[in-house]
Design brief:
single chain, 273 residues, alpha/beta, 12 strands, 29% helix
């Protein structure tokens, strides 16, 4: 692979498709399984699903971690209540992840900024390189399950993750609106083209439960997720409700307190990867 590689294989003249482009973990690091959380559209809840799954696996007795690949719009630190924390390094160039209250290892761009509100004004290839360094330069300590919170779309970062990391499977996050169907299908087809296994679909903002009668009210109309799942032969893992409790936990940086029983099926599949 050229030293000036932009990770855009469609416009590349190099004959490197048969080579293993995966990056090497830093000495002393260990990550057993890597799960990407993706969608072709922003604002559907990828970070929420990532945080909930990492918390569930930790509660199940596994060592979990989150690599926040959304360099320009990170929200993982807020979900876990570690805003303002700074990642430390040493003379060898090693970077040490931030740990949450329960011991989940996190790495996010916000941990490297002087102020977490500072914008990251980088072009795509530079952002992709930073994500790769989160894998190669961070000391990940005996991680059973790492969840990679992807930015929206099918551009530089997802391509870098799929090529550079040993991704064992992805979870595609959707929402009920009809317009999301095409966007989700793009993410599914990208995974198929990159030969990355799809674990299943998660629909966020699926419904609101009536506090009086427990009826599920579909605020955005009838869901499309079952149709997408049938068309591509992949399972629906969860339908996440719109909930004040979930929103409050995220805003307060206390996502680890949520039980998230609706993700039990996803947890079971991830354990068996």
């Amino acid at each position: 692979m050229s030293e000036e590689c932009t990770h855009d294989c469609s416009s590349c003249g190099s004959n490197c498709k048969s080579k293993d482009l995966r990056a090497t973990l830093r000495e002393g690091s260990c990550v057993k399984k890597v799960i990407g959380v993706v969608s072709g559209k922003g604002g559907v809840g990828k970070s929420l699903v990532t945080a909930l799954l990492a918390s569930k696996m930790r509660k199940a007795g596994f060592k979990s971690a989150v690599l926040d690949a959304d360099i320009t719009g990170p929200s993982i630190p807020t979900s876990f209540g570690v805003t303002g924390d700074r990642a430390e390094g040493d003379k060898s160039g090693a970077i040490y992840p931030i740990k949450t209250k329960s011991g989940i290892q996190l790495m996010s761009m916000n941990f490297l900024l002087e102020k977490e509100t500072d914008p990251v004004l980088w072009r795509g290839p530079v952002i992709a390189g930073a994500v790769r360094q989160f894998w190669t330069d961070v000391v990940w300590s005996d991680v059973d399950f790492m969840f990679v919170d992807m930015p929206p779309g099918t551009g530089d970062v997802p391509l870098t993750v799929f090529q550079s990391l040993p991704v064992d499977g992805i979870i595609v996050v959707s929402s009920p609106q009809q317009l999301v169907r095409v966007i989700v299908e793009k993410a599914v087809r990208m995974a198929e083209m990159m030969k990355v296994p799809i674990i299943g679909l998660v629909e966020n903002m699926s419904y609101v439960k009536c506090p009086n009668c427990n009826e599920e009210i579909q605020v955005f109309g009838e869901s499309n997720i079952n149709g997408i799942a049938k068309d591509y032969g992949i399972p629906v893992l969860a339908r996440i409700p719109m909930s004040a409790d979930i929103s409050t936990a995220i805003d307060e940086g206390d996502v680890e307190r949520l039980d998230a029983e609706f993700l039990d099926a996803a947890e079971a599949l991830i354990k068996n990867l």
